[in-house]
Amino acid sequence: xxxxxxxxxxxxxxxxxxxxxxxxxxxxxxxxxxxxxxxxxxxxxxxxxxxxxxxxxxxx
Length: 60
Known about the structure:
By secondary structure, this protein is mostly helical. Helices cover 80% and strands 0% of the residues. The chain has 1 helix and no strands. The protein has one helix at residues 12-59.
């Protein structure tokens, strides 16, 4: 039996699955700060719009 197929060593399919699983975990980890920044920007735009409307009402 070849050493690559010895019992206990991962098969090619398992190796490929582990690569994709690791890559998906890394992509998921990178998406968290991006989505958090998007939420913060959206809240900032909303706060600016509300503040602008309140200022316009108080000036009139």
